[in-house]
Design brief:
Structural class: alpha+beta
Low-confidence stretches: none
Oligomer: single chain
Order of helices and strands: HEHHEEH
Radius of gyration: 12 Å
Strand content: 5-15%
Largest sheet: 3 strands, antiparallel
Shape: globular
Amino acid sequence: MSTNEPQEGALTLDDLRSRPSLTVEEAGRVLGLGRVVAYRAVRDGSIPSIRIGNRICVPTPRLLALLGEG
């Protein structure tokens, strides 16, 4: 497999733009972070998030802006 090919299960920019929010794990994968580090970044505010009940969602437009793609 070439390094330019997306990894299986990887989200493309088009995928991201079509979704209003991501899970913390998905946002972590986009950023190349593991699960624990992604949740730590949400907790310290490095990854923007909102809590809805018991769920933590990462708003896609804010994540894209963080990446300079928004």
